[in-house]
Amino acid sequence: MTHTPTMQERPSLDLDLPAQLLTPEGERISDERLDHWAVDLDVDRLRALYRDMAIARRVDAEGVALQRQGQLGLWAPAQGQEAVQIGTARACRADDFLFTSYRELGVLLVREAAPADLVLTWRGEALSTIDPHALHVAPPQIIIGAQTLHAVGYAMGIQRDRSDQVAVAYFGDGATSQGDVNEAMVFAASFGAPVVFVCSNNHWAISEPVSVQAAVPLAARAPGFGIPSLRVDGNDVIASTAAMRWALDHARSGGGPVFLEAVTYRMGPHTTSDDPTRYRPAEELETWRARDPLLRLERHLAAEGAFDEAFRADIESAATQFTSRMRAAAINAVTRPAIEVLDDVYAQPHAGIEEQRAAFASYLAGFASDEGSSQ
């Protein structure tokens, strides 16, 4: 059955002003595009969202520290993008299937990924650490934009199963310049697939500003494919949650795909191998610090008398427990024998892999001989 949203349900596309429900100063405001979808976000729910974001920031800081200390090969910081990640993921149903890039730390935390899941791949100990069937999250993609095609394919499978799940694809502004993302939107629109595209516009695709990638707001592209879209303040967790609820309802009710552009900012480097001071003006960074997603919600909760030292201590305790286990998982990781790199290539025995295994085993044995002769 095809669902046609009413005017109240269908947000209009405002190219200049992202939809917002919480100002940087912490003031709760109205936006007719989103009010309908945020009526139940009371103080208790907002405290839970703040807790998620605060823990995500601590976990992110721990990941950076572990990389700097030589325990991880790389880390993709997510500081500043907590609101869009937590808000949209919390809006999803448990059985909705999420397809992320390498930066969606908050999404993995919402789906209860284990501490080891966040570090072992970055340490090079595993190709993927999460169980997609347990978390309903596909292995995070390094290939820019590839996950959008995976999400649309899954969504088309949902249609054939006659289920009411929704697939969600997370990607950054830089990915919108990739053919994969555009091809995914073509298929999604043509087949009316139940998929939500969540684009975190953090303003920088490594060293390339979004102003060079797009002459118009990214949300303006989707209607050209026949996909309704909304530009939302990605540093406002209330607006991010509400916008995602609208998008999910549209897709789940048979309305087809939706595109959300969450306007946010990457506070840190693209990855720990990047130096953003070489291309990003310091003044821009300071401007966005004032729009910090955690700070604005903290101000709002404090004004409501719902933010005290006991609440802060509870978050600190939870974050410390998680990051301690995360650090232990990284430091105590045991590297598998090199030959096991071929173990999980195919689900069933494969003659070609067995030939490669024999050749690789012979290659590794040569190193053992060299070691023995030098003693």
Task: Describe, in plain words, how this protein is organized in 3D.
This protein is of the alpha/beta class and 375 residues long. The strands form 2 sheets. It has a 5-stranded parallel β-sheet with strand order 1-2-3-7-6, with helices on both faces. The N terminus is likely disordered.
Assembly state here? single chain
Counted beta strands: 7
Overall pLDDT metric: 93
What distance separates the N and C termini?
75 Å
- Principal-axis shape equals globular
Q: Radius of gyration over alpha carbons?
A: 22 Å
* Percent of residues in β-strands: 5-15%
Order of helices and strands: HHEHHHEHEEEHHEHEHHHH
What's the helix count? Answer: 13
Helix content: 40-55%
Segments where pLDDT lies below 50 for 5+ residues?
1-15
Task: Tell me the major beta sheet.
Answer: 5 strands, parallel
**Order of strands in the sheet with most strands:** 1-2-3-7-6
Q: Tell me the structural class.
A: alpha/beta
Any chance you could write out the topology, listing elements then pairs?
Elements: H1 43-68, H2 82-91, E1 97-99, H3 105-110, H4 132-135, H5 146-161, E2 167-172, H6 179-191, E3 195-201, E4 204-205, E5 208-209, H7 210-213, H8 222-225, E6 229-233, H9 237-252, E7 258-263, H10 282-289, H11 293-303, H12 309-331, H13 351-373
Parallel strand pairs: 1-2, 2-3, 3-7, 6-7
Antiparallel strand pairs: 4-5
Helix pairs in contact: 1-2, 1-11, 1-12, 2-9, 5-6
